[in-house]
Amino acid sequence: ALAGPTLAQNLPTLNWRLVSSFPKSLDTLFGTPEVFASSLRKATDGKFNVKIFAAGEVVPALQVLDAVQNGTVECGHTASYYYLGKNSAFIFDTAAPFGMTARQQTAWMLHGNGMKLMRELYASYNIVNFLGGQTGTQMGGWFRKEIKSPEDLKGLKFRVAGFVGQALAKLGVIPQQLPAGEIYSALEKGTIDAAEFVGPYDDEKLGLAKVAKNYYYPAFWEGAAGLSFLVNKKQWDALPPSYQAAWEAACFEAHVDMCAKYDALNPPALQRLVQNGAVLRKFNTSVMDACFKASQETYAEESAKNPQFKKIFEDYRAFRNMEAQWFGLAEQAFAQYSFSKKL
Amino acid sequence: ALAGPTLAQNLPTLNWRLVSSFPKSLDTLFGTPEVFASSLRKATDGKFNVKIFAAGEVVPALQVLDAVQNGTVECGHTASYYYLGKNSAFIFDTAAPFGMTARQQTAWMLHGNGMKLMRELYASYNIVNFLGGQTGTQMGGWFRKEIKSPEDLKGLKFRVAGFVGQALAKLGVIPQQLPAGEIYSALEKGTIDAAEFVGPYDDEKLGLAKVAKNYYYPAFWEGAAGLSFLVNKKQWDALPPSYQAAWEAACFEAHVDMCAKYDALNPPALQRLVQNGAVLRKFNTSVMDACFKASQETYAEESAKNPQFKKIFEDYRAFRNMEAQWFGLAEQAFAQYSFSKKL
After folding, report:
1. Beta strand B141-143 with B194-195: parallel, antiparallel or unpaired?
2. Contact B43 A333 (CB under 8 A)
3. Nearest of A21, A113, A119 to residue A73 by alpha carbon
4. Distance (Å, whole) CA A131 – CA B101
């Protein structure tokens, strides 16, 4: 049923700037706002344009939240857990040790209290947040020596991001912060003993198999890692409702696309890494048990310190425990049997 | 950067009809086009309206493809495998025995050849297809008696949909077709011995625990089940590009939302089912092995009969085998350890 053309519209032409926390070389992470911006531009008939800037072009990688909060730019794409120094509760928007998987986290955000709770947190920074992609479970990283027991973690200089560092420190790990570009030489020189990054596709670019061939899994601190789009609240509130709707739908498109891209690119990258010398190793139960216990202690400590952390963690935990029970049945029984078979 | 209002638009007001294969009572499945239509309407400033009709209101549940192909309606929401009688290759748009999980299938569609191949298939029906949601791994169904070995499948009258019926028939199962509303009384009377439907949340509505308490998992024939939006190609081609873009983004929104909804609703439903007498049972390895072998034979037979099936299956299989290898590492190691722990 095609009706006649409507009257003049008053929809504005907008040119916004989006700052990314990632370099162009990481086409998975950097590519996600590109998918988003393309969807938004097309759906608004070319009127709402978002130009994307890589880390460092407008603001440094880890100042995306600040730039959006201050109105330096209208919007950004980042991982909320980079800002745990501002408020440790930000980790639940990205990843938490032994936390939710990609699907569980999206379910918590959309049909649990996740989005509501994270928006409350972001509101005090004048920011509205949106889903912005998922990496899936990451790899545990590259280790020069084997980790056979919790003892082997003592004194280990491990390049590892964020909250899990507090837990690992209890086991004697010395967490290190290093930009991606410096990991290779630090491992080669022995300045650090191990480094985690993302997963096979992104890790391959760093070439670490040559200097630390033991490629451990899983990253129990990143059973999933969620990315986020951030928008300055004043800018968001001023948008026409149709642009807000197009924005939201474009975020969903980018959210699906990023995880699908990782899931398609990681398997062949893994094969290439193994061909080039990476030795796949699984953290054994003694190591996992020690890390689980240390993580539990860290959750309790942080809950005692930060009421917002406590509030969000209680909700996150309850949802996650219920999810774990269900995913442990049909989904796990299928995966366990099926993944071991060649179709 | 807010520019002035633009000139008159020529975007039309559209009122389309969407036919669903599902009844309103299944709010998960029926609700997905509602999420889609709301997103599309808002993003087009109220101009592109899609009115949703439940199964039977305009056409019967399993004639959605025909109605869209013939132009009876502009669009539909359905599961492609309902149309395997037209072409068995349609199953790969929904679910295949021991096939891909939800994330793997979305990856194949968007960053493998899946969408391209399915669009080629749908093109001969004058239809353009889009992602339309995911259920995740389904439950294996409700059984009056325990299934302890492949022997117990002989003569079993099992209400089970589609392609897997051909495989199960090799093991002596007598596949039954029954509308959802007739399952309860058929199980009660013993006309059938077992019935599969979806998962805890949808199954709960049928009340089957009272008449067949053994609730088996997993549905190895539905490691994931993808739903699809179908659009008449002539109607699609006539849409303004901005409406096409808003349509695509709205499909992504609905795609994410449906799986998140299932993942949020299934866990508490499972708990209620168990409280009300359902006994959870896992298909053992001897049963799974027999079904896997029978499925492999069915794939080979169908490939020999249908070149389109063969072409899509070969691509599906290669992608799935690569995915299984990768998901068997980090994702599985995390799930296996983590799901068994209370956070």
Report:
1. antiparallel
2. no
3. A21
4. 22
User: What is the rounded distance in angstroms from the CA atom of residue B235 to the CA atom of residue B12?
Assistant: 13
Whether A39 and B245 lie within 8 Å, measured CB to CB:
yes
CATH superfamily of B14-137+223-265: Bacterial extracellular solute-binding protein, family 7 (3.40.190.170)
Task: List the helix and strand counts (H, then E) for chain A.
Answer: 12, 12
b (16+ CB within 10 A) / e for A315-342: bbbebbebbbbbbebbbbbbbbbbbeee
Put simply, whether B335 touches A (Cβ < 8 Å) is yes
**What are the structural domain ranges in chain A?**
14-136+223-265
Print burial letters for A26-51: b (CB count within 10 Å at least 16), e (below 16).
Answer: bbbbbbbbbbbbebbbbbbbebbebe
A2: nearest CA in chain B? B14
DSSP-based three-state secondary structure for B178: coil
Backbone CA torsion sign across B78, B79, B80, B83: negative
**Which among B104, B108, B343 has the least Cβ separation from residue A98?**
B343
Can you give the pLDDT of all 343 residues of chain A as single tens digits? Answer: 444 444 445 899 999 999 999 999 999 999 999 999 999 999 999 999 999 999 999 999 999 999 999 999 999 999 999 999 999 999 999 999 999 999 999 999 999 999 999 999 999 999 999 999 999 999 999 999 999 999 999 999 999 978 999 999 999 999 998 888 899 999 999 999 999 999 999 999 999 999 999 999 999 999 999 999 999 999 999 999 999 999 999 999 999 999 999 999 999 999 999 999 999 999 999 999 999 999 999 999 999 999 999 999 999 999 999 999 999 999 999 999 999 999 9
CB-neighbour burial class of residue A186 (10 A; exposed 0-12, middle 13-18, buried 19+): middle
Quick: pLDDT tens for B109-148.
Answer: 999 999 999 999 999 999 999 999 999 999 999 999 999 9
Among B109, B329, B336, the residue to mutate for chain A (most A Cβ within 10 A): B329
H-assigned helices in A112-179: 114-123, 164-169
Q: What is the structure's pLDDT at B53?
A: 98
Which residues, numbered 165 to 204 in chain B, qualify as contacts with chain A under a Cβ-Cβ cut-off of 8 Å? Answer: 199-200
Rounded distance between C-alpha atoms, residue A102 and residue A138, angstroms: 11
C-alpha angle with apex A306: A304 to A309, nearest 5 degrees? Answer: 105
With contacts defined as CB-CB under 8 Å, which chain A residues touch B7?
8
Residue in chain A closest to B112 (alpha carbons) equals A264
For residue B303, the Cα-to-chain-centroid distance in whole angstroms is 22
Best mutation target among A243, A265, A322, A334 (most B Cβ atoms within 10 Å) is: A334
- The reply to whether B136 touches chain A by the CB within 8 Å rule is yes
Which spans in B1-140 are helix H? 27-43, 64-70, 102-111, 114-123
Pick B256's closest partner by Cβ from A217, A255, A299. Answer: A255
- ipTM for the predicted complex: 0.96
Name the residue of chain A whose CA is nearest to B113's CA. Answer: A264
Structural contact between residues A198 and A138, judged by C-beta atoms closer than 8 angstroms? yes
Residue A102: both structure tokens together? 């990609």
CA distances from A229 to A61, A90, A99, B260 (A): 14, 14, 21, 19
Q: CA-to-CA distance for A335 and B318, rounded, in angstroms?
A: 17
Name every chain A residue with its beta carbon within 8 A of the beta carbon of B339. Answer: 324-325, 327-328, 332
- Residue B116 at interface with chain A, using a CB cutoff of 8 Å: no
The CATH number that domain A14-136+223-265 falls under is 3.40.190.170
